[in-house]
Amino acid sequence: MAEQHQPAVRLRSLLNSRLGGWWVAGVLGFITLFSAIALLAVSGWFISAAALAGLALASASVGHGFDIFRPAAVIRLLALTRTVGRYTERLASHHAALGLLRDLRSRLFRRITQARRLPLRTPGAMHRLVADIDLLDQFPLRVVLPWAWASLLLGLLLLWLALLSPGLLLVTLPGLLLAWLSPWLGYWQGGRLAREEVAHAEQRREFLLDSLELLTPLLIWQRWGERSAAFAGQDRAHLQRQDRQQRLSSRIALLQQWALAASLLALLWQGWPLISEAAVSVPLLLAVLLTLLGLSEALLPLAGSFVALGLSQAARDRLNSLAGEAPQQEPSRPRPEGPWRLQLHAVTARWPGALNGPDNIHLQLEQGETLLLQGPSGGGKSTLLQLLAGEQLPSSGECRLNGQPLLHWDVRQVIGYLPQDIDIFNLSLAANLRLGNPQASDEQLWQTLTDVALADWARAHPQQLQLQPGELGSAVSGGQARRIALARLLLAERPVLLLDEPFAGLDATTREQVMAALVRRQAQGLLVIASHQPIMADRLRVLPVGDG
Amino acid sequence: MSDPAETKSWLRWLLAPQQRLLNAALALAVAAAGLFILQSWLLASLFSHWLLAWQAGSLASFDSSFWWPWLVGLPLCFILRPWLQYGRERLSQRASLRVRQALREQLLQRLAMLGPARRGLGADAELGSRLLEQVDALDGYVSRYQVQRQLVVIVPLLLLLATAWHSLLAAALLLATAPLVPLFMVLLGQAAANASQRQFVALGQMSGRFLDLLRGMATLRHLQALDRAQLAVEQAAEDYRSRTMRVLRMAFLSGAVLELFASIAIAMVALYLGMGLLGMLPWAQGEIPVPYQGALFILLLAPEFYAPLRQLGSDYHARAEAEGALAELLPLLKLELWQHPGTEPLQLQQAPVIDCRSVGIDLPGAAARLCPLDLRLAAGERVWLRGPSGSGKSTLLHVLLGFLPHTGEVLIDDLPLDVVRRSDWHRHVGFLAQQPELIPGTLADNLRLAAPGASNQQLIAALQEVDLWPLLRQLPLQLATPLGERGLGLSGGQLSRLALARLLLRDTWVWLLDEPLAHLDPQTAELIGRLLERLSRGRTVLLVSHETVGLDWLDRQVELQEGEHG
Fold it and tell me: What is the complex's ipTM, to 2 decimals?
């Protein structure tokens, strides 16, 4: 992808959106880990020093003046900061992470709504929005913060060792560095596994959703067993992939622990000579040992960090490909005003790969007139309506609205199009209708429902306007769903209406009733209907499309 | 909300097959704890020797015969302990993998038993997210919580014994804080489980909302309703965020309580031991209750005393998550009652008689309704079922397919449908749904869904019968033409014909047809109607339709009364 395209998601900028929150989480987390390790080290040093002082006390009659209160206070303070730090750090980091996820969801949805076309099948897009975005918080939570903490603590430890005794630094350095760097061994494999997992998770979900949609026919055709076995196979492969990731992380953790053990053993091996040379005292040596033991708490989370990084990267790449390029600003165009007039001159259009389409259509339609497109299925009625509705498809000839080419106008508020595939959303009936006009009152909704002959049906339901039609209109019949979509379009009050088969599933009486309402509503506009059924209207014109 | 005891018993039932793996993991973890005690003892005694030698100024030279227990023991502990932990992780991860895989397969099987009635459980996107995310939500519970739950008792007990050996008071200090821990966890865990369940509901709703709105993007854009859709998405996302945060806050709080006890206990033990070594304890002035070696040993053990509890504290979240997820899955797991009960084989040599005797459906809360209906289809009779939208025409077809529990009786050649094995019955039934279901793939793939063994010639023959082949033959890829989502590329009429072709590929004695002629122009409807007439001769046919065109050949009309809505 070229540089000028601004990708929707960048890992780098993930931290920017809630930078303050991440800083707070980072500082608190560091304090917590530091306190946890220091608590052990100081305690160890304290009892060793106390034992030494006690021994001295027993052998000599004069008190050594061992200051007990300061270490005791430090120990209590560390105990407190560890507890409070852990709680507040977790709250802060997850607050930032979840806020980030929320921002990402809303931002990506907006990006998609602005794109001209959905680049992929919708179950996949849903999966990306829901699951992939969830993966992005792994980057700050499991990559950036743990590495920052581990590196800082390791640096502090090395500095302390260097000040204490260069000999100690030298013997422990190889093991510590190995424990710190060995997660990098997982960089390539972990990243690859993670990318594979994210990609296959999507395939698995699409396969499952497709299977569920086809469940009934597959059962009847005795093909469900095969299909579910295929899904089980995909699921197994997916789980195996996850398992390989976990194994990689576990192995790296094992290596890290062994590296730390090597540095501990080196410390003990060199410990006695160093004590003998009085390079370091026994209490301090113990403190170093305990620090090394405690450091595993900071280092071990790094084992899975590259798998997490891979997951975040894969999720980012796929989200970016979903969001596509940044939308281009559309040139502003004038909005046409009535009276309305539609002219078609020698219009021919074809969808790529389609056999049929409107051929050499001539037409002149004046305000208040109704146009009926007639012709066999697949003859090109729908294609003509799509062309008029502004779909970008290869065409020749001229479509003029009010004397100007269609492209000259901003017709977004003017043309209302009822396509063959309608969408009823999983919202209440009222909410579905109000998508057409959010300001519509309940009376308006009822009036429109009456116009499309649905009012009696809606009244018969106990929930009335709050009726939940269910996803894809599964709780309403196909004809009812079409008329709900029609009612929604009527509420949007578009002066030019293009309706594809609005009367499917209606008996003749109801059809006439709905038709009369449509004509009445469009008296000050244009009405174009593609239908198989005969309709009646005062100023009706009929246009055959295809060889009907 | 479901009964927690019930959730627990289901969890136990899920885990039972993997108990051996989990027990092995536990054994490894306990062995690792044993090694830790040994390692601490070795370290404590080593430092004790060094401290005494240093204090005495007797910097003796290195003598390997004296140091061998440490030379052998410490490396052994350092190498073996991480390895045992690795083994424990791997074993319990394997157990988790198997549990999830088995559960998912079972859930899918149950959905298959429900057939079209699964709509009552939720939209497909929601069901899909249950099968994927919520089953995966059991991972932490199986792979971490199960073993940790037992370790949390065993390990502290071991450490307590080791501590008590050296100092009863230090052991008592550790012991005193321990019982408070489970108490807090029970209190907080319950709240976390409830919150976790609500979070899953929110996740499912969010998935559904996204799918719904993305599918209808073109409509939303056309209606200029994108801003409202954006708002709906933001609402769902915010809802999900706030619920997740609530769950986490609960989980973190239980973690913090444990952390507090751990920190305080370590600090108290350290102070007690240190002051004891100085002989400054108020009640034992000048005495050393625990000598240095024992004191150091206890100090090294103390953090590990709380480590399993702390780990459990974070894994407790996993348990709450699992219980929440399972509570969501339970409606699906418990639906066994709805399974079609038939086991008898069914063989049809000719078109059967189908006799519905006061067949009805009136389930509380179910979307499908049907008033009790008497309908007898003679062998080879072709009946047209009419009725207003929503009167239950499609529902009756689902009943006849054996997918819905119902009152009354359906007899097939005098054999009750409920007694017959459903798959046997399906072998003889052709069903056409209102919207033809298509998979992403080629035309041939879609046709072969119904008849996997069909040759290209057979496919072409079927397409020819529905008048689709003359059209498709002109396409460059012919049978290999890919179909997009919702069959993009074909008109509504062509899709119906494709579905009819699929029906023709399976030669069945019974046809149940749901609006086969909707969306066809009168001319084509007439044509397909005639085709249906010719091809359905000798079959028992129940056809549901509003349309009147092309259906005059049916033997009989039955009018269904409007369903009663409260």
Answer: 0.79
